[in-house]
Known about the structure:
By secondary structure, this protein is mostly helical. The protein has helices at residues 2-21, 25-33, 39-59, 65-87, 91-94, 96-115, 126-144, 151-157, 162-186, 192-216, 221-245. It has one domain (2-245). The protein is globular, with a radius of gyration of 17 Å. 47% of the residues are buried. The mean pLDDT is 86. The chain crosses the membrane at residues 6-33, 40-59, 71-94, 101-120, 132-153, 165-186, 223-241. It is found in: Cell membrane.
Amino acid sequence: MENIIYITVVFLLAGMVKGVTGMGLPTVAVAMLSLVMSPVEAAALLIVPSLLTNVWQLLSGSPVYPLWQRLWPMMAGICIGTGAGTLVGGALAVDAKMASGALGVALVAYAAMGLLSLRWRLRGSEGVMSPAIGALTGAITAATGVFVIPAVPYLQALELEKDELVQAMGLAFTVSTVALAVSLAARGAWQPAAAGMSFVAQLPAVAGMLLGQRLRSRMAPELFRRCFLFALLLLGMHLALDAAWH
């Protein structure tokens, strides 16, 4: 019962973060759920809420096809990287503590880049970088269940318009969620109980997202983003250090 209440609160909070910032639901959900369960169990609960909210985000803007034409090599890389990570027995299936540690390191890296306002400058061809970044994102997704690194910094480096960036993240997160679902199913980790709970979790996630969208106009988004990143930094450090000590 305590876990059900905790899961509900986590997805409500994660949805609110996504409503305010346009991102963060998978990151917040997996990070906080990993405090009370293994990362693979957390990732299994994530599938339906993540897919629903990211498809919503993807379709709420301009037509998707022009964006798909530009970013399809990255999307293909995400699928290939996630599949490769699954085939080599990604850390989620090998060792729960190792997965928690990898998740912690990924959260620290992501939060630090955001807090320091680090931005990539693309020196190579986008045609070469996109599939490589996608493959690396997919591999990290297979290992940790989180798909923001390095996808989000890379998309920010493309200097898209604000609405295009939000839509591009929705596209990347949708593809990553589907790839993660296939990965978990291939490992036998998406059992009926987890799938059912994932469907239930979409309710607080959507409620939180709607609340976050209403709050967005009443608060300073940049201050909220920095507080969110600082909390992720602390949580990532906790997960990484706990895995190292044990």
